[in-house]
Amino acid sequence: MILCEIGNTRYHFKQNGRIWSAPCGKVPDLKLEQDEAIYVISVNKRALRRLNAHYPVIDLEPYVSLDTEYQGLGIDRAVACMAVSDGVIVDAGTAITVDVIQNELHLGGFIYPGLAKFQSMYAQISPRLQGAISFAIDPAKLPESTIEAISYGIITPLVCAVYAVARHKQIILTGGDGGYFARYFEGSIVDQSLIFKGMEKIIKGF
């Protein structure tokens, strides 16, 4: 079985337990068994059409069922939430999304710019504010350098906001930058296969 989560810029695949990704600009060479199709969720319709031009796909979006009153929830967020019965999901990718689930009910969530976007915004303010984000900062200690000040301004509000809604729930980190935040959430879990687990749950329900 091949699973594919199509993001804004990359294809993310899971096949035979292996997870890898490829740029959306080019469809990777995949080896499918006879009559095999790729199970897909996508936020990028153009990339989905490109993949479907090369391989048979089954779009799982019509089968996504999440108990929520949130309006406009992205398909990727909804599927990730389906993999968690109780907890807080922090998905740090192009955007940083936070979703709260309780007894399989999605209570809501919020969105931050992704780390790369934060960096570009600071660089636009002044060249002196250009640089990498440091994950060595301590939210309990005031910064003593510009790089620490920028990092503090990005990381600390997010950490505080997540703790404010978590209320002792399990925090699950995912997405390309998710692992960087683990040090700030004691007892958190890093799970880069969360969306695939949600997809597998949907497929089992067929």
Structure description:
- The chain contains 5 helices and 11 strands.
- It is α/β, with parallel strands linked by helices and about 210 residues long.
- Helix 2 (about 75-80) crosses helix 5.
- Strand 8 (about 95-100) and strand 9 form a beta hairpin.
- The chain has a 6-stranded mixed β-sheet, with helices on both faces. Strands 3-2-1-4-5 form a 5-stranded mixed β-sheet, sandwiched between helices.
- The protein starts with a strand and ends with a helix.
- The chain has helices at about 45-50, 75-80, 115-125, 145-165, 195-205; strands at about 1-5, 10-15, 20-25, 40, 55-60, 65-70, 85-90, 95-100, 105-115, 170-175, 190.
- The relative contact order is 0.15.
- The protein has 2 domains: about 1-60, 2-Layer Sandwich (Nucleotidyltransferase, domain 5), CATH 3.30.420.40; about 85-190, Nucleotidyltransferase, domain 5.
Task: Please describe the topology of this protein.
Layout: E1 2-6, E2 10-15, E3 18-23, E4 38-42, H1 45-52, E5 57-59, E6 67-68, H2 75-82, E7 87-92, E8 95-102, E9 105-113, H3 115-125, H4 146-166, E10 171-174, E11 189-190, H5 194-204
Parallel strand pairs: 1-4, 4-5, 6-9, 7-10, 10-11
Antiparallel strand pairs: 1-2, 2-3, 7-8, 8-9
